[in-house]
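It would be a great kindness if you could assist me with a short task in structural biology. The matter concerns a single protein, recorded as an amino acid sequence and a row of backbone structure tokens. Could you please explain, in whatever detail you think fit, how the structure tokens follow from the sequence? Thank you for your consideration; the sequence and its tokens are set out here:
___
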Amino acid sequence: MNSAAPYPSDLNLYIEAFVALFITGVFVVSAMLTLRDRHRDRSAWHVYLGAAIYGALFGAIIGFIIVPLRMALMNGDMPTGMAGYSGLGALVLIIALRRGLIARLPFLGPQVKAYRRASLRRQIEAAQKQLDKLTPNTGSDAGPDTGPGPS
């Protein structure tokens, strides 16, 4: 590999672009299939456009940062001292995206915020269903559960 090239020589920009577009498409299709009217406080197109923008951010970071980093690490083209720093930077980016820190940026607009709110409402609903399944069913007549004891 030429040391002046920013990417590994066997990496194709079409692959990176396809990864970014695929991830964007997954976000939009997932939003269309899982986010119902009860989760949204805006019209559906706001939420879907927000999903596309958020997916494009994820896709761009994965496609244009993580994939080339992986290729450079697998080929052994990256200097030993830089591998850890590059991986740490990529990890910080992914954690920032996952925690929703990127959605708080002021230039992303109301669509991304509408998508995040709808997504969080759906997650809360799913968590509540799981809690309801795990909560013991106590009838109104039954006293506190003292467990097996001497009779």
Notes: The helical segments are 13-34, 44-75, 80-98, 110-134.
